[in-house]
Design brief:
This protein is mostly helical. The protein is built from 7 helices and no strands. Helices cover 70% and strands 0% of the residues.
Length: 137
């Protein structure tokens, strides 16, 4: 009896780790968020990692920050105030203020609807916020 139990134990000791590794690998590759297309894998590995990423422009960083504030529930009026403060602090952003304010207006329409979004309008960047609201409404 002990000889048979030993043989079964040895067999399990050899087979069980292989089964666990294979099932774990299959489980990870079969999750819905894993992209199983070979082109995605090839593109990721074919990238030239020696080339440093280009730094993002200040206006892009500011626009993304302000849009994030708006999406996190900050009132559009407060976000417009932050935009005006940044333009006052860094005058070089003035040429990008119109585009940023329009993007904020469009995002406010998505969050609040056209009527409520328009109620937050103020004369930041030559009323570009209102222009963004109007283009979406």
């Amino acid at each position: 009896m002990t000889h048979t139990a030993r043989r079964i134990g040895r067999s399990l000791a050899l087979v069980l780790p292989v089964v666990l590794v294979l099932s774990g690998t299959l489980a990870v590759t079969m999750v819905p968020w894993a992209d199983n297309t070979p082109s995605q894998i090839l593109t990721a590995s074919a990238e030239d990692v020696s080339v440093p990423a280009k730094p993002r422009a200040t206006q892009d960083l500011l626009r993304d920050k302000l849009l994030s504030e708006l999406q996190q529930g900050e009132a559009p009026g407060a976000v417009l105030t932050h935009l005006q403060q940044e333009v006052d602090r860094r005058p070089s952003l003035a040429e990008h203020c119109v585009g940023i304010a329009r993007a904020l207006g469009r995002a406010a329409v998505d969050a609040y609807g056209p009527t409520k979004a328009q109620s937050f309008s103020r004369p930041v960047c030559d009323t570009s916020y209102a222009s963004g609201v109007a283009s979406m409404g």
